[in-house]
Amino acid sequence: MTNLPSQISDWLEHRQWRLHPHQTAMLARATDPATLLIAPTGGGKTMAGFLPTLADLVGNTHDGLHTLYVSPLKALAADIKRNLTGPVAEMGLPIRIDDRTGDTPQSRRKRQRADPPHILLTTPESLALMVSYEDAERTFKGLKRIVIDEIHALAESKRGDQLMLALSRLQSLCPNLRRVGLSATVDDPAAIARYLARHPDPCAIIEADPGPAPDIAMLETAEAPPWAGGGAAYAIPAVLEQIRTHQTTLIFHNTRAQAEIFFHNLWLANEEGLPIAIHHGSLDRMQRERVEAAMVANDLRAVVCTGSLDLGIDWGNVDLVIQIGAPKNVKRLVQRIGRANHRYNAPSKALLVPANRFEVVECQAALEAVKEGKLDGDPRPPGPRDVLCQHILIRACSGPFDADALFSEVTSTGAYSHLTRAAFDACLDFCATGGYALRAYDQWQRLLQRPDGLWQLRDPRSAARIRMNIGTIQDADLLKVRMKRSRGGKPLGEIEEAFAATLTPGDTFLIGGQIMRYESLREMTVEVSRDRGRKPKIAVFSGTKFATSTQLSQGILALLAQDAWPDLPAHTADWLTLQREVSELPRAGEMLIETFPHQGREHACLYGFAGRNAQQTLGLLATKRMEELGLDPLGFVATDYATLIWGLSELTDPAPLLDKDALRDGLERWLAGNAVMKRAFRASATIAGLIERNSPGSRKSGRQATFSSDILYDTLRKYDPDHLLLDITRDEALSGLVDFARIEEMTDRICGRVNLRRLSRISPLAAPLLLEAGKVPVQGAGAEKLMQQEAADLMHASGLATLAQ
Amino acid sequence: MRGYDFTLAGTRLNALGSGALWWSDERLLCVSDLHLGKSERHLRRGGAALPPYEVRDTLNRLTALIEQFTPDTVLCLGDSFDDLAAARALPAPEAGDLRQMVKARNWIWIEGNHDPGATSFGGYSCDEITIGALTFRHIARKDAAPGEVSGHYHPKARLSRGSARPTFLLDHTRLILPAFGTYTGGLRTSDPALAGLMAPQALAILTGPTPLPCPMPR
Fold first, then answer.
1. Is pLDDT above 90 for A301?
2. Which residue of A has its CA nearest to B47?
3. For residues A144 and A249, what is the distance between their CA atoms, to the nearest angstrom?
4. CA angle, corner A229, sides to A226 and A232, nearest 5?
5. Cβ separation of A805 and B89 shorter than 8 Å?
6. CB B53 to CB A715 under 8 A?
7. Alpha-carbon distance A250 to A309, whole Å?
């Protein structure tokens, strides 16, 4: 059905628009079970996704929901609603369009379930909630198409796994449901196609013309970047100059903290008062919406932002993207560049600003990768089991179910197609009884198997609790920040509870680019006032620091292997040349370890190029081993490319530190009690439904309302070490914050080839590590002693020491 | 294990790092808020199935203390059971162990808001009890005379390093014990309920390998 109905073709003609070839191709494949469209930003992706729906609804005899649109961002759903409602009205099509997200009022949600619109725009979490209702079958009756936008972003997270499981349920309710995925450029389209389609259905991949190659370069600055750090303050004048000569500039940062600092410095240097704003996920929603509205109205010359502006919202006239700090990941860089310039056939313009000397090398490697179209991507791991547990509970909320039928539904999802029946049954058992070795309270199990074999909730009240906890996004415990006023001042955003706990009244910190003075904590809200202080603390956000990707790390090693570096700025090429003279440059097939004395301490620098999370874990494991060997390590610091360890004794035999079995043993034995593992457990236990973030009738803070997940973790490890959730936690630790998978990749790559260089003094490549923030002291009995000292000092200083005697 | 020695209403007491109170002159061991059976109650009321090992863990820790101090009297300051149904539903081996422990010595149950009433585990149950200069009750009274020992609030506090730990609170009038049970959350000492109760000069004694006394964080 490539022939468009006249209402649509007339409308296109009137606007003098012609369909792109990929839009025509999508129309031609309207009846395929699954289609994946890969197109750059501005390529009319959304229109391509909706055209078949509009064509089908022209006569509109359809009763109820016809097309579901799912996007990762609430804002995107609202944006698409605006962009779709206009044309549909102009074409005179009798189509009702509505959106439904966490922000939608309860009354409208109820109406949507009873009388759904033809096109419903929603998010994975809202869809999961809709699927959990007893009347899901009626709500989704007649559903023909589902359009998943920004599927490449969803495919990287558990939100996507949850979405695809919900979709497997929808597919059972509506067997003729057609799936459409819309994606930005990705490294492995076939993997996304397998992820999208019902297993083992085929899925055609339509690739739009990628448009002209982006115009991308490193920003030239008068001053050389510093040796370490991530602030890029040196580049402020050059960045301001770029803002002046462009209409609207997006300035991307890898972390919220860096965005805050940069914005602060930029504002101090902004003498002409150019309208510049800041936008990141920890700012209050009202603040963000104000910035978004100002951007659409072209009132801003620049926005300092993080990933919160990554996804395809149409923001006015962006004509330059600046990336501060090395991009860490080529794919993300390419997608960010796509933010600039929504005109399809003009090249996007982007500038990279390395924050320190090593990042110059990394930026150069990234530029070369972009030029060669080499995108990085790690193979998708199999579908996570904690998300499956939540899905089983959601399924139980909607009514009694048959385990065999649910198993075949789940394995029709690409990510879960290899799930074994035993693994599925373990998840079902966890949902039903907790899955403990000790069957303590069988009469109270959560799910019951009825005489007819179907499973159902024992207590109908638990459906409300389960629904309240749907979702896979993990928030740290956040506290709201407000201006101090008599009846609650303006909301400014959120900071992590752990950071708030370090503040004492009078401390200042940065939020939303302003310096605020901490006044008090009232009912779990941080109250602040304005302050003119000069040296604010920097709020910590656990928004993860990305690790440099495996592929980009390889690119860097290849660059280091060159004889000379004509493409690098002189200051950086000279640095590398000096390293080659004094020591040598790390090579791909071996691990270079430099040892040297410095300031009265022995140092060892391990160039693993495994990314910062893995290098951090390597530091933890290696220092633990060194302690056992009596080498008295005192601390370490990790970056994306190396771990620097200092201590009392020289490292002469590094082999025991890098033995693969010993490292894995350390992971199992020692790291298992580590705070990072406890964090991974907390996340999985929350997703799987063991810990409730929200419980009915409770408006307490996250921490007071829930159990200490650390205690649950310790209890399980002690009494039930083979429990499903501990198994899932180990799986999670392999990637993520512990990133043990990268350590294993590294040990495989070096395969025992260690190149130990003894130097008389610190090497040029190791020197910047000494300046890095985030040094980790090796904790022995010392931590307890420091706490005792602090308590004693407080007692003494307050004069209380004599009171109790 | 060395505790923290202090005096309340002329009575020499010792706050243990485990969260228990040792009164050596009376050979009395006091613990508060065991909340035995919490996972069972949680599940019974439609919540998730928490690991059902907390009764075993709490009893193991209490047994270790009893073996170490060989008290004549054990006093539980209330909320010993997460509710009375949870008391009835304790797994058989744990219920048997508890019965043995109670039988072997003088055992006093103070009734709390979670467990208002006697249980079948033996011992002596009461609302509150006065021994020497000290009065033991579950919830502190604002107008209490000096020498009050209570529980209920599960106080916790943290220093600038380390995570929050269950903590004793002490001033000239009263002592509040931390919760001893394995599955018991905590209430920050900065909470108005606690800040309003304790005198300005109050101490917090953080539990841990060694008890850490410091000014009560507010």
1. yes
2. A462
3. 40
4. 65
5. no
6. yes
7. 9
Among residues A586, A623, A602, A625, which one has the least CA distance to residue A758? A602
A627 Cβ contact partners less than 8 Å away, ≥ 6 residues apart: A633, A778, A780
Question: In the numeric block, which tokens belong to residue A759?
Answer: 């130097």
Q: Smallest Cα–Cα separation from A701: which of B185, B122, B163?
A: B185
Q: Does residue A694 surpass a pLDDT of 80? A: no
Q: What contacts B81, CB < 8 A, 6 or more positions away?
A: B34, B35, B36, B37, B87, B114, B115, B119
**Which residues 6+ apart lie within 8 Å of A134 measured at CB?**
A397, A398, A399
Strands B124-126, A478-483: pairing kind? unpaired
- Tell me what pLDDT residue B62 has: 98
Q: Residue A41: which of A300, A214, A283, A235 has the closest Cα?
A: A214
What pLDDT score does A533 carry? 66
ipTM value for the complex? 0.92
C-alpha distance from residue B117 to each of A560, B38, B81, B148, B153 (Å): 75, 17, 11, 22, 20
Quick: pLDDT tens for A514-573. 788 888 776 667 888 888 766 677 665 544 567 899 999 999 999 999 999 999 999 999
Within A484-590, strands assigned E span: 491-496, 508-511, 514-522, 525-530
Q: Which residues contact A711 (CB under 8 A, 6 or more apart)?
A: B182, B183
> Mind telling me how many Å the CA of A477 is from chain B's nearest CA?
14
Query: Are residues A794 and B185, on separate chains, in Cβ contact within 8 Å?
Result: no
Chain A interface test: which of B41, B50, B160, B184 (most A C-beta within 10 Å): B50
Largest CA distance in chain A: 93
Instruction: Give the nearest partner residue to A690 out of B50, B53, B56, using CB atoms.
Output: B50
Amino acid at A617: T
More confident residue, A503 or B29: B29
Answer yes or no: do B53 and A719 touch at CB < 8 A.
yes
Query: What does the pLDDT read at residue B149?
Result: 98
